[in-house]
Amino acid sequence: MAELGAIDTNLELDKPADEILSDWIQCICVVTFDLEFGQAMELVYPSNVKLSEEDKTNLCYLAFPDSNSGCMGDTQFHVKIKCSQPSNLSQCHINYNAKCPVFLQADHRCLYGFVFFRQIKDLSLPRGYFQKSLIILSQLPFISLFTEVCGTIAPEYFKHGITGIEVAWHDIKQWPDLYAGETVSLPLLGIVLQAQLVCDNNKICSSSNSMVPDYQLPVVVSSLYELNTFGCFSSIVSQMHLLWELVLTTEPIVVMASSPTYSSQVVQALVSLIVPLAYYGDYRPYFTIHDNEFKEYMSKTLNPPPIILGVTNPYFTKTLQHWPHIVRVTDTLKKDTTNKSKLRKGSNLKILDAKPGVYTEYKPYLYKDKSIVKKLIRGMQNKRPEEVQSALLRRHFLELTQSFMIPLERYMSSLMPLQRNISPFKAAPKPWPFNPDNFLASLEYAGPQLTCGIKGDWKGLYKQFFRSPNFNGWYNIRYKGMMMKLQVLQIEALSSVDINNWLEGKQEVEIVDMILKIRQKLDECESKGYPLNKRIKDQLKVKMDDIICSLPDDLKNVLSNKKPSSR
Hints:
38% of the residues lie in helices and 16% in strands. The protein has 567 residues and is of the alpha/beta class. A six-stranded antiparallel beta sheet has the order 2-1-5-4-3-13, sandwiched between helices. A five-stranded mixed beta sheet has the order 10-11-9-12-14, covered by helices on one side. It is globular and about 90 Å long.
């Protein structure tokens, strides 16, 4: 990690730097412990970033470990909060979301917080301890990247104060735009982080790279979001297939861990089990008793919502006993830059008094794949590197999720109207409705058994999936994509018609209506980011000019002055 002393702390920062916002990072916050008010927001940088009082309060409570008396030194973890006043996504985020995988999209409804908490003895302070956290906030779920960024900035802040943040922000505002498919170089406090912005496999993305100075070796972040998956689950590896089903069907899960570092990583690893499918339930990598929804989740009269909670406070062992699925894990993660906490005797380790495991009455629909379990256990015995173990685990569940989703994707494709049924002069047709019974009938000849050797009640699992937010979220995205495709096909059909033949015998009102319709289509393509070829756009504009030329001069002048909007 870079030392700020190695860079020029006398750097002349542009005065407007504190006004320039970043599409990567929304702001940097500092939370301190105030004797009178408890945890309090000390700093939000840049100062023109507006956080609601409710969001500030939530962040303050999440900024310190629940049982912080047991965490001496430095502790890193991440959190997720719902925005009380969601803002619109920037145009950069909209363009990025159009090309990246759904599970890596920017989300205006929430904020991801990356926390670096420091607690050290300081007898000069009234409580005898120095306690403070630096938090990086972003709308992007780049867990691994921003954990690295936070771990780079925080030590320099604790060493040099706000100057460390100012110099870091000076670097951050020079980061390139977000473009899915690119390898980006991100200068930060004397080092350069290099990361790959993942592109959706079904979309055409750019593939250029931002340059790194020849004299500087980059710090390569191997993944934007992947964690030490095996380290998170090594104590419950034999129950991984059960967990996969629970996450796939958006069952309510509580993860009980010994530290916010481990809690947040296990929750994130659970959500990532179903990649490339996005998780459409809610999840809180670290949840405390001060959360606004604490009472709702503790209620024994209401069914728990589709959410994954990560907790460390022993109080939850009693209040969450009614939850249907409880995961208890033992912290086996190596102590590295992402977890430097030292737990004292008698700290919140009591939460793990029970044996690690998944406590549930849920009966899995599928049999577990014993071969991967044996391979991972053998790897532990042979001291295989955790990076290799994690890669094996991720690949297995990636392939399992793909085997589950391929029949659904194939069936959705069959709901598309035929291209020959798309008329240039009528509204674009809609996809046929999704019929669960027809889909289930198709599994006999086009089911997961074609790509996966795992046996079990696949139909039962699909039925359970149909009742989950994950199905609704996936279906809505796919339906929206199909509608966009049909709109593009209809526009392409319109661009290829013989406009002179069409003009014969048409009334002025019909002609004007056609001009307005073409303009509306072009505007819609621009505003919604439809992947319409420039050649098609140019053809439509030429046809529009030809139509206008056929009109009387008075109409011609009016319509010629109404140019289609360009963005």
